[in-house]
Amino acid sequence: MADSEPGGAYRKIMKLGSLDWKLINRLAPYIRRHIWLFILSLVLMLSTDILSILHPYLVKIGIDDYIKAGDFSGLLRIGLYLGLVFIGIFLTELFTNYSVQYLGQKFLFDMRMDVFSKVLKLNSGYFDKTSTGSIMTNITNDVEAIREFISDGIVTILGDLLKLVFILGAMLFINYKLALITFITFTLFVIVTLIFRRNIRNGYRGVRSANYKINSALVETITGIKEITLFLHKDQSRKKFTGHNNSYLRSFLKVINNFAVFFAAFEVISFSGFIIILLFAHYTIGIDVKVGEIFAFFTYLNMFYRPLRQLAEKSNAFQSAMAASERIFTLMDTEIPIADPEGPAAGQSAPRGEIQFDRVTFAYEEGHPVIRDLSFSVASGEKVAIVGHTGAGKSTIINLINRFYDIEQGAVFVDGQNIKEYTLSDLRDRITTVPQDFFLFGGTIAENITLHRESVSPDSVKKAAEAVNADHFINQLAGGYDSEILENGKSLSTGQKQLLSFARAFVTDPRIIIIDEATSNIDSGTEKLIEEAVNILMKDRTALIIAHRLSTIKNADRILVIHKGRLVEEGTHETLLQKDGIYSQLYRMQTLKGISP
Q1: What is the C-alpha end-to-end distance of the chain, expressed in Å?
Q2: For the stretch 155-185, what's the b/e string if a residue is b when 16 or more beta carbons lie within 10 angstroms of its beta carbon?
Q3: Where are the domains of the chain?
Q4: pLDDT digits over 57-80, tens only?
Q5: Which CATH number is 14-332 given?
Q6: CA 280 to CA 247: how far, in whole Å?
Q7: CA distance 416 to 85
Q8: pLDDT for the residue numbered 566
Q9: Which has more confidence, 383 or 221?
Q10: In this structure, which CATH number among 3.40.50.300, 3.30.70.20, 1.10.10.10, 1.40.20.10 belongs to the domain 355-592?
Q11: In CA terms, which of 107, 299, 444, 454 is 20 to 30 Å from 248?
């Protein structure tokens, strides 16, 4: 996809300037959620700034009014005021740092939850076209970059801008002539900032792009480490990762180079401000400028450039956050084509377990249909198997029944109602699917069966495990149902994981059970347990079985043969063998391969 590059959609429709404001506007709701904390942080920061402004002014008074006049009591009073100011600065900075960082963490929590919630709502089509590493980068690195900008950026930037206003006001109050001259350097600073701004942003876009590619390569390596080792693919994997790592390095060096030149130019501008004041003071000393005023101006000028430099450094975080925002809001704005209907049909029928495909045509990619004008019906309580060559469309049928994708033509009905009229939760409550590639989560055995549904009691968990023969191995584990298993059941055998997936399906007590049968690479004893579990699951339920081994479906009520997305044969095992068609060919091929009944 052209827009798969992070932020691609945004960059096509907006100029850089308007993009900044749009992205900042998108971040505003997160700040409004904690507006009082934001205001408190700003007030504390302003208090620190005001106290900091008082410091040079008090020193000026001490020099010009008390030291020159030899008034040591006045000087002592000024010293007391300065002490109180320093204590105030310490306390306000202490609470400012805490409140600002706390605000950033609250922002991080809210945004991360919103992004994660969006990921849960995305349809299968999105995950088909988006790498896992890209999504991980959105939730981790990108959100963290924005958090850093919020906690170390927005409040600080507002505080620094107001501090600049206070400093300029103090400088104008002390000596407006010197103040007006120093404004020249401020103009130069703004010009230099605008020049470097675009290059820094482009550099951070490259950093973000390379970062998600690194995450993608890392996920791919960890997931496929066994294949990488077996097929001697380590050198190629290392070469691929090195390429992404070099891209990250080049992009970050581009950012560093721009900032190096930018800060060098900034230092020249700041030093020029000091020189201008020195020259002005040299030609006017004793006439317009007092010694205390010169000291105060140098202090203020140093204070003036400090927030300017901080603003320049915050530009680093700002550009990084804006590049991250482009990626996050591209994800957040992703359309969700499959959602609950605006007004779910009233009086949805009670679950009966009926399925109907009515002239369904579907394509993952436009112009390349996988299902073509497919029609069939499954009655309540009927056991129907679906067979066909690889790529015939068997798994797609499962996806369409569960409404992972929406069809282009025709309709799918469950219990006599178009599945588009159901809420997604109601539809999937009626159907339980045991996929071929089942997934187990990190946690206990019981948690993997219940999936943390509070309505499922411990007794129900044990009954489900006993019903599908999973209790045999569970009771042998040290912790029984409380035994911890690794992500995706790495500590379990293939057969044990499949039995757990059957227990997970059984405990939901669905009216429709869909089983993507897979019994390869399983010993004969476990295979027998699985076949018994399948029979128990199908009892008194409508069952749809995606058959890979034809010997396991001989007792199905009906067999549907799918070829190139079409229904080409239909009947029982015996009748289909007599037709000597595709089913008969598939059966003979498996028999020749030793997969005999």
Answers
A1: 46
A2: bbbebbebbbebbbebbeebbeebbeebeeb
A3: 14-332, 355-592
A4: 777 777 767 676 666 777 788 778
A5: 1.20.1560.10
A6: 50
A7: 78
A8: 92
A9: 383
A10: 3.40.50.300
A11: 107
